[in-house]
Amino acid sequence: MASFLKQHWRGALPLWLALAGPVACSALLLWAVNRVLADWPLPALALVDAPLAIWAVVGAFRTADRALREGGGFVAGFAAYAGAGAVLLAVGTTLVARKTPVRSFTSETVPARLAVARLPEEAGRLRLEGEMTLAQFNALRERLARGGVVAIDLDSPGGNIFAARGMARLIEEAGLATHAQVRCFSACTLVFAAGAARSVGQEGALGFHRYVLLDSSSYGAVRHVDAAAEEAKDRAFLARRGVARAFLERAYQTPPETLWHPSRAEMREAGLLTD
After folding, report:
1. pTM for this structure?
2. Separation between Cα atoms, residue 185 and residue 188, nearest integer Å
3. Quick one: DSSP state of residue 243?
4. Between residues 34 and 195, which one has the greater pLDDT?
5. Which DSSP category does 206 fall into?
């Protein structure tokens, strides 16, 4: 093995063997290692990659030079140089796709320059409708600071989970009631659960599903968010709000492409409704 490693480093291997062995295997290994160790800091990951990448690339360049000197022709030299490029590409793309930590969403982490949504209001009741957005969070924060709000009426298909968490925190801290007038699905259920008193209208419905992240077309599985970890955070929040464990198990077993709409009796028995 040591002799084989030295031969590639010196560019002494036959061209086909250098490309099929050290170059191709190094590119695949570097790609796999960077995905497995995606949690590591970038400097540490670069140090892990460097020895193998340098060995593979230097050997490929020396093999290309030797092939050209020995009359192997342009195609042979180009193939070796392309192999070296493949190794560098494997390193670069997977480093770019490394996992980065997700910050918890709180009222202090939202930039003040965000657009502010319009929140309809009547007799101290604010209405959150449409998709949950950071602009809605900003508007809710500003309105609650002035006081006089007693309840939040909800009509939302879901939306930004981090915005929903932020609004849930504001509502919980203010001790407001929540009411699902029509629909309150996905991320909206966190906002609903934050209410000190929670009710559903005659045409109201809540919808739950398991969390999922779609694959990136460039790098495969999305690396910057752990769906299971994010789901666990929200399960813990709902449990703290008094929702039964069995209800949560059923809610988060629902496939992400569908919604589970629990009955009023199920929600009341689970502690989600307080009326």
Report:
1. 0.59
2. 5
3. -
4. 195
5. E
